[in-house]
Structure formats: structure tokens, C-alpha cells
Amino acid sequence: MLRIAGLNTHYGASHVLQGVDLEVPEGSIGAVLGRNGVGKSTMMKTVMGLVRPSGGEVELEGHNIFGWAPHRVARAGVAYVPEGRLIFPDLTVVENIKVAERKPAKDWPVDRLFEVFPSLRERQGNRGSQLSGGEQQMLAIARALVSDPKVMLLDEPSQGLAPLVVRELANVIRRMRQEGVTILLVEQNMKLAEAVANRLHVMVKGKVVYSADPERFRDEEAEIRSRYLTV
Amino acid sequence: MDTLAFILTQCVNAFSQAALLFFLGCGLTLIFGIMRIVNFAHGTIYMAGAYLGYTSVRWLGGFVAALMVAPIVVGVLGVLFELFILRRLYGRDGNAFLMVTFGLALVLGDAVQVVWGAPPLQVPPPAALAGIAFFLDEPFPVYRLFLIGFGTVMAIGMWQFLERTRLGLLIRATSQNPDMVHALGTDVRVVRSGVFGIGCGLAALGGVLAAPLVTASLGMSLAAVVDAFVIVIIGGMGSFLGSLIGALIVAFVQVFGNYYLPEAALAFMYLVMLTVLVVRPGGLLGKEE
Ligand SMILES: Nc1ncnc2c1ncn2[C@@H]1O[C@H](COP(=O)(O)OP(=O)(O)OP(=O)(O)O)[C@@H](O)[C@H]1O
Ligand SMILES: [Mg+2]
Q1: Distance CA B25, CA A102 (A)
Q2: CATH number for the domain whose boundaries are A27-50+70-229
Q3: What is the pTM of this model?
Q4: Centre of ligand 2 from the C-alpha of residue A82, in Å
Q5: How many helices (H) does chain B have, and how many strands (E)?
Q6: Which chain A residues are Cβ-neighbours of B170 within 8 angstroms?
Q7: Does B3-279 carry CATH code 1.10.3470?
């Protein structure tokens, strides 16, 4: 569904993505782990078109979307849940969702989103800035779903959330997978990534250096953790 | 003249002045809110609106036609200016916009002088609005009453447009986080062009409306840009409601200041602005950045 090959991105002189190779098959969840600053968010922004790549390939369902402007990437079927949620603080919950609802949603209309995220229904008239971190995360996911995406880019959704909320988040992610949403997940919370992903990838210095399915990953976890993930 | 009639007269003057200032300030604040650029040409665009209004009245023979034609022409020119010039500058620091819009003010100001000449031009109010209405035995110019009514309708219209329409929602969202709007599937470049056009069109509309009161003159542009800046600084850069409140405050200070202390009216306006800045640095309804 989503294929990234040899993706390179520079910020000025600093070479952040140095040839990322990654594939997320349809209906699955691919999780990317990695230390702070290795380029995980940069990869998401590059796929989304928010950052200009300097080389490589990005394909969605076999169609090239490399170097496209963000609105075209979004319209092609990629939905973005950024690191830090980036909810519109002065818009209400409903308005936040409506910004992304470019045409009436088929799979994820607002009613259905409120059923998946009951807390958002209760707070639908509240402004984004009045929500808790967990509610903002759910809203960011709802806002992405309303466009009926083929692929969702989900960047560190568990960041700063209480354990109970992280568990709720894991359920939401599983539910999306059941409904056939393909997800590229970036996570620092290894337990969450292991619990939901079909395949795990480790990024080091702008490259994916290790990929495995959850079973093998669990077997090799201790070694991966010490080699690639702890500081 | 008794006190009540006096106050009423001054209020009509102030509210009608506020209507003109609202068009000026609202356009400037919309442009700032969404593009984070300070449009130095705003006063000149207002002036160009007044001159275009003059020509529209002469050619098309009607004030109503002028009210529609001048803002549309100026709005379209604004969109083109954004498309071909401003668009190249996003991502650069604010000074680039300062220079370019200042340059636009100079060029447009000279162009107006070349086309229409230096002497001020009279724009008669439409016949239906030229008269005087009596209330409590006091005379009120019908045109000023019209300005109050028209300004109120347009302010409510703009507010509803921003709150209820999809484009209004996108404008508000873009002012909060343009990249996120872009990533959610809307081409923010189109929103930016549109808002620049709307802002310029509103300024031109204010210029057309002002012409029958003050004549179309080259001097209007400086006064207008100063007023516009004071309004948005008082109300808060980027806040629609702030521009409305700012316009009301500035209008009342100008009208009552000119009556009681004409020599110090301008200084008094700056004093009000400074007071607001000290108490709330981001303006009454603005955010500190
Ligand atoms: N806009 C930018 N300009 C210049 N350098 C940047 C920019 N954004 C990120 N970087 C740098 O690029 C590198 C990768 O950043 P990125 O945000 O992609 O890391 P990350 O893997 O998502 O880290 P984290 O786990 O902390 O979110 C970092 O060294 C960062 O400092
Ligand atoms: Mg990151």
C-alpha cells in the first residue's frame, strides 16, 4: 500500500534521511522505533509533502506521490496525525474534524467517529485548547479518519499520555486495523508498538536498519533494545 | 442644541466613521491573521478604492454599481499581486513583505496620481442618500445613517461568513496552523490568495464609502494606513472581533477628540493605543506572540 525507497531528506546542510526503505502492506500496521532525533518525524513529514525530499521514491498503491504538495498527498488518501497532535486550539472539536472533511465521509462519518470516541461527543462544542492530552490525541485521529484514508501516518500518539489512556489508544489502533486502515506508526513506547504492529522497524541515523515481525522482534528484543534504542 | 441632541449627533458621526474604519481594519487584520504579513499598502488600496469609486460612478452612473465594481476590481488585483509577487516570499523573514508592500504603496500611489491627477475629486452621494433626516428636531445626514446600517450589515455578514461557511472555517484554521490545514487536504496557497483579495476588496469598499464624505484625495492613503494600524494594534492582530472593537474605539476617539480638542485628537488616539499596548501587549483580543 505504502512503499518508501531510498528516501533522502536534508535540512540545509544536515542530511537527516539517508535512504529510508520501508513498506507497509495494505491493511497492516508498520511501526517504526528509534531514538530521539534519528529522523522518524522527518520521514512522516517527507511522505506527507511538508518537507521536500532530495531523492528517493514514495508510492501509494503503486502510484508515485514523491515530492507532491501536502494537499495532493492528502487527497490521494494519506492522513496525517502529527507528533504533538497539532489540534487547532481555537476551533471546536467538530470544527477541527470539519477542516479535514472535504467531502461527506463514507467509512468514517462524524456520527461513527463519536461512537468510536465517546469522549469527543461529550466535548464536541469545546475548543481544542480545552481538551486534555488524551482527548486531543483522539481528536487528531478522528480528524484524520474523517477523510476515509487509505494510509494513516501516526506519529508518537502515546507521547505524554497516562498508561490508562495509552491502553485506550491501543484499542483504537486495533479497531482501525480491523476496519482495514493501513497505518504507519512511529512510537517510542515499545510495548504499544509490539501490541498493535504487524511489522516492526528500527531507524538509526536516517536509515531503517532492522525489520521483523512481532514474534521475531520479541525474541530479539533485548539485543535490539541495547544496540539501537537505549541511549 | 440640547445635550441629548448633541450626543446623538456625535454618536451618528462616530458610528458612521467606525463603519468606514471597520472595512479598513477588518481587511488588514484578516490578511495579517492568515499570512503573518503587515500590508503597508493597505491605506493606498483604500485610496485607490475611493478613486475607482469616483470613476465607476461617472461611467456606470450609479453608486451601487461603484460599491460592487471597485472592491471586485481591487480584490482581483490583490489576488494577482499575491499570486505573482507575495507567493514567492513565504518562508522568508518579514522584512521582505515589508519592503514589497511598501513598494506597492509607492507604485500604486503614483499610479493613482498619474491616472486621476493631484486635485481631490468630489464624489456625490447617491441622490437617495443625499438628504437630511430630522430627529428630535436635529438634522442628520442620511448618508451617515446609511453608513451605519451598511456597516452593521456587513460586519454581521463577515462574522457569519467566518463562523458558518467552509471557507470561513478554513480561514480561521489557516490562521492557527497553515501546515496542518495543508496536510489535511486544502491548498493553503489558494486560501492565502483569496484572503489577500478579500482584505484588499474590503479596504477598497471602505474607500468607495468614504469618498462622498471626504472626497477622493491623495492624502487619504497615509491617514488610512495609520488608522488601520492603530485599529488592529488596539483590537489585536488577526482578530476579527478585535478589528470591530478597534474601529469603534478609534472612531469615538477621533470624533469626540476633534470636537473638544482638535489640536490633540491625533495624540489622544496614540495615547489610547499605547495604554492598550501597556495593559495588553497583544491587543484587546489578540494573542501575544
Ligand atoms: N525544521 C528543521 N530544521 C533543521 N533541522 C531539523 C528540523 N526538524 C528536525 N531537525 C533535525 O533533524 C533530526 C531529525 O529530527 P526528527 O524530528 O525527524 O527526529 P525524530 O526521530 O522524530 O525524534 P523524536 O523521537 O525526538 O521525535 C534532528 O536532529 C532534528 O534536530
Ligand atoms: Mg519525532
Answers
A1: 31
A2: 3.40.50.300
A3: 0.93
A4: 9
A5: 11, 2
A6: 99
A7: yes
